Automatic annotation (TrEMBL):
It catalyses: beta-D-glucose 1-phosphate = beta-D-glucose 6-phosphate. This is Beta-phosphoglucomutase. One of its GO terms (biological process) is carbohydrate metabolic process. Belongs to the HAD-like hydrolase superfamily. CbbY/CbbZ/Gph/YieH family. The lineage of its organism: Bacteria, Pseudomonadati, Pseudomonadota, Betaproteobacteria, Burkholderiales. Its cofactor is Mg(2+). The record marks S113, K144 as: Important for catalytic activity and assists the phosphoryl transfer reaction to Asp8 by balancing charge and orienting the reacting groups. Its EC number is 5.4.2.6. Binds 2 magnesium ions per subunit. GO terms for molecular function: beta-phosphoglucomutase activity; magnesium ion binding.
Amino acid sequence: RYQAVIFDLDGVITDTARYHYLAWQRLADTQGVHFDEAFNEHLKGIDRMGSLELILAASPRRYTDAEKLALATEKNEHYKELIATMTPADLLPGATAALDAARAAGLKIGLASVSRNAFTVLDRLGITHRFDYVVDAGTIARGKPDPEIFLKAARELGVVPGDCFGVEDAVAGVASIKAAGMFAVGVGDPRVLAAADVVIPDLTAFRIPCTAITNKTTIT
Ligand code: BG6
Ligand code: MG
């Protein structure tokens, strides 16, 4: 029986994935790099500098570390403008109900986002108090798909990874959950999130996974 659920934030609980997309789009435009939804899909769940590296790899120009830092800061300033007006109305459908269901089932609730803006976003959404533990992205050495962030959340919640399930919208995020030895609930397109144990279109379909599903998945 599961004892904890660990949520991703961007693209799962709120549509900040859209804001990240818009901010990277503008940055890519200024650098003359072609950027679209398909490219953006690879950036989901990837930390800020990692995302920037992927975008700049598509440019013929070489960038110094100082230039990269300036571009990352520029993107983040734009992103901060976009999230500044967020309110609890920006919770995605089913998000509050999912958090309620997890609480009602007696699960510990964690948040594993590599975003350094996660605390701000939770605050704006008014849901900080609903989490037993929120990983501070600044303390993570290796971003998703490395399992570090989900393992840290489990450890801080006092639950072994096998008793946790993770909820993710990104390919890199699902890989991180699986590498941590947890059950993965994908949120989005099942063709994109094929590595997840179960995929739901959005949190309105969120159910606490039962042991039967886990056993079945372990066998196959
Ligand atoms: C992840 C997003 O949650 O956070 C990525 O999926 C983003 O798109 C990453 O790049 C880092 O966010 P931030 O706020 O630290 O730049
Ligand atoms: Mg995400």
